[in-house]
Amino acid sequence: MITTNHSIYKIIGILFFLTTLTGNAQEKNIKLEDLKKSALEYSNTIKNGVLRAEKAEFARQEAYSKYFPEIEASGFALYGFNDLVPPIPQTLPNGIDNIYSLGATATQAIYAGGKIRLANKLAQIQLESRELATEEAIDSVILTTETKFWQLIALQEQQKTINASKIYLANLLKQQQDLLDAGLIAKNQLLQVKVEKSSLLLKENELSNKRKIALLDLAVYTGITYDTSLVALNKSDLQVIAPSLKYKNPELDLLNNNRYRLLEKQVNASQLKVENEKADLLPQFAVGINASTFDSFNYDFNIGVQPIAFATLSIPISAWWGGEKKQLLQSKIDIEIAENKFNDGKDQLTLSIMKSWYDLQNAYKQIQFAEDKLIYAEENLKTQRDNYDSGLNNITDLLDAQKTKQEADSDFISAFANYQQKEATYLYVTNQLQLPNIGKS
């Protein structure tokens, strides 16, 4: 079992704690949890996903309405400037110059080859697919937010190591100036420290620009107002636990994975499409009732409402050798294509889970390596400084030791941020990402 040195985590805790203490009055802290909430509320991808799910729900309701009778009403009226029917003595003395008709029809499908049932199943699958896609979009936004956040954290912490190196070199430069003034060293040793300090200032400028770009990227993605005074803030008690102790080895429960379930829905939809096209080859039977009346506005006919019951039967005979049959054959091929895509997608999902698991383990080992390197660099710098003060080595050895210490600090910070990103990726591909509590600030 891999263990970590608690002293290193104390260093991390101090670094993060100093983030809050050294921030000036203009600094504005931003937390990962708040950024997640903001990103979820701001994301247009999620908004469109919700709209598509809402649209699919209306489609499901539309399909369900087909279970009920279709009712329609109709009416027409005619008016003739001359009599439509001339006067008939004793029978129709005034003639007829207007007529109207009113009617209503209700039709109920008794058997439609199963199309109504299949349409409802397909609409339900589409609704479930849209809901899964929305959940997938939410997870994707959470993952991207975490990745961008830890990129910013890494750059901020690297700036701190640069500042610590600047202080160290400034003190060393003052010491060199004193020694030069006393005639104890050559001028080139002083210049050597100045060159090292100039190189550090150049790197400081590059890091500052990278941080501004990372902050802008995070602000644009999460919808917060960009401000160079924003500082990403993390918990001071954060510790890294070995993946083998924290998670299963690894989590391959595909049945509860949203991406796997989406692949299944695609296959199910293709199968239902074939069943629906089979229904086009089957007879359709419906019954209905019509009630209508026909008269003139003068009530010349005096005809009451006449109810009529009817039934319809449709048998698509030519469909068995026409285009409908060929469409059915094409849809069967579509099922095979969907099944092949499902198998490929399942294999790719399994592969991505295993890769993310091994990436997480490697990231944890990188922290252990960076920890050992940091311990060595700190001890080596102390030794080289003591030797330099005692006249046992030259300024080059001391500067090399200081540079090694700076690199070790940077590597440890990068390894720590990289682990957080790899952990978020693993939780994403295994469908275990935790959503922020939107109800709390």
Q: Indicate the percent of residues in helices.
A: 55-70%
Form type: elongated
Given helix and strand content, the structural type is alpha+beta
**At CATH's second level, what is the architecture?**
Up-down Bundle
Q: Please describe the biggest sheet, giving its number of strands, its sense, and whether it closes into a barrel.
A: 4 strands, antiparallel
> How do the SSEs run, as a string of H and E?
HEHHEEHHEHHEEHH
Overall radius of gyration: 39 Å
Count all strands and give the number. 6
Tell me the number of structural domains.
1
Q: How do the strands of the widest beta sheet line up side by side?
A: 2-3-5-6
Our estimate of the beta-strand percent is 5-15%
Q: Any idea of the CATH topology?
A: Outer membrane efflux proteins (OEP)
GO cellular component, one term: efflux pump complex
Family: Belongs to the outer membrane factor (OMF) (TC 1.B.17) family.
Organism: Leeuwenhoekiella aequorea
Keywords: Cell outer membrane, Coiled coil, Membrane, Transmembrane, Transmembrane beta strand, Transport
Describe the structure.
The chain is of the alpha+beta class and 441 residues long. It has one domain (6-67, 122-282, 331-429): Outer membrane efflux proteins (OEP). It contains nine helices and six strands; from the N terminus they run αβααββααβααββαα. It has helices spanning 6-22, 32-42, 44-64, 115-181, 187-222, 243-246, 258-279, 323-389, 395-429, and strands at residues 28-31, 70-79, 98-111, 230-233, 284-295, 306-314. It has a four-stranded antiparallel sheet, with no helix packed on it. It has a two-stranded parallel sheet with strand order 1-4. It is elongated, with a radius of gyration of 39 Å. 24% of the residues are buried. Residues 1-25 have low confidence and may be disordered.
